[in-house]
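re: that chain from earlier
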Amino acid sequence: LVVVGDQKGRVGFGHGKAREVPEAIRKATESAKRDMIFVPLRSGRTLHHDVEGRWGAGRVLLRAAKQGTGIIAGGPMRAVFETLGMHDVVAKSMGSSNPYNMVRATFDALKSQMHPKDVAAARGIKYSTLQARRGTAVAAEE
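^ sequence. v structure.
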């Protein structure tokens, strides 16, 4: 199992099998690079909103955190957040502790992350209206 990212909001994971370990790592890395996803980050450091992801018996809860909090997550989730370029997040894993299930549940949660502009478009309201409801200025967002 390999996790790759560009530290700017793109991350992917892959699995490779071979008789030799280096060959398996190479295959997993190629697979991870092929299947990268983009995750919108708030201020380039945390999530826009809290999300939950599931995969098999594994469940993860990801919460946005204040600046300076750091990455509070265990095991494979920490690797995903570090390669993603996220600096502040609180994560809780429940159910299965299998690394594959945890990584896939984390990706399931990250895929459901929406940028506020997309939320505003889906609701049919202006982005500035959404920001005003949230209690922050539009300029502070990006």
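Residues 40-111 form a domain with the Ribosomal Protein S5; domain 2 fold (CATH 3.30.230.10).
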